[in-house]
Specification:
213 residues; mainly beta; 9-stranded antiparallel β-sheet; 8-stranded mixed β-sheet; 17 strands; 2% helix
Length: 213
């Protein structure tokens, strides 16, 4: 098991887009696409970062985050506002320790309030939240292992559903866990990469899609 050292230090990657309310959410039918980005356009709004904490940006048709410090997360978001979503992203660690974090964010209000869905390259998972700058896991006191998470540098498809007060994590089309929490009802979506005691988490993200459940 992995201890609750999640999000000890957090760095927002400056995004290019401003938050906007999605009229499409009320118009798109169930199962329809609310938003998608395959990261082929460096001006699509996810921003870039070059700092001692890490480096991020668009590269080779994907979005790349490299975490250079221990116990740090880097995250970014496109500047949207949704209430009910089913979001997916493909993640591939290319270097660094297998004890890392990579995943999705939903209902992001600001840099101190959001939900996150994380897995690691050594096969662990967790759903949690940041509220008023304080982090907690909603699926127990520690990240736990699951056989559906492909280890090492293999590609995993992560899915996060935020429906009412229900938060659901799928990995590679397998239901992994769920939790209930009603603190946040709307907000942005996003991606996150992080490190535990060893720096160097090096993650590629691709094929980011938000559906209406």
């Amino acid at each position: 098991m992995k201890p609750l050292s999640l999000l000890l230090c957090l760095f927002l990657i400056p995004a290019l887009a401003c938050s906007t309310t999605s009229i499409a959410e009320s118009l798109v039918p169930s199962g329809g696409v609310l938003y998608q980005d395959f990261f082929g356009n460096p001006q699509s709004g996810w921003g870039e970062l070059n700092s001692p904490a890490g480096v991020s940006g668009y590269i080779d048709g994907a979005y790349h985050i490299l975490v250079n410090q221990a116990n740090v997360n880097l995250w970014t978001h496109p500047g949207k506002d949704f209430s009910t979503v089913h979001e997916e992203v493909s993640v591939m660690p290319v270097a660094g320790p297998s004890s890392n974090r990579m995943g999705l964010i939903c209902r992001l209000k600001d840099d101190k309030n959001f939900y996150f869905f994380a897995i690691s390259a050594d096969g662990y998972y967790g759903i949690g939240k940041m509220k008023d700058g304080q982090t907690s896991l909603l699926t127990g006191s520690e990240m736990l292992p699951h056989a559906s998470i492909l280890p090492g540098s293999q590609i995993n498809r992560i899915r996060a559903d935020c429906i009412g007060d229900l938060l659901i994590l799928y990995v590679n089309n397998v239901l992994v866990t769920s939790a209930k929490d009603g603190d946040f009802t709307t907000g942005d979506v996003g991606i996150l990469a992080g490190s535990f005691d060893q720096p160097g988490a090096d993650i590629y993200f691709d094929n980011f899609v938000v559906y209406k459940p």
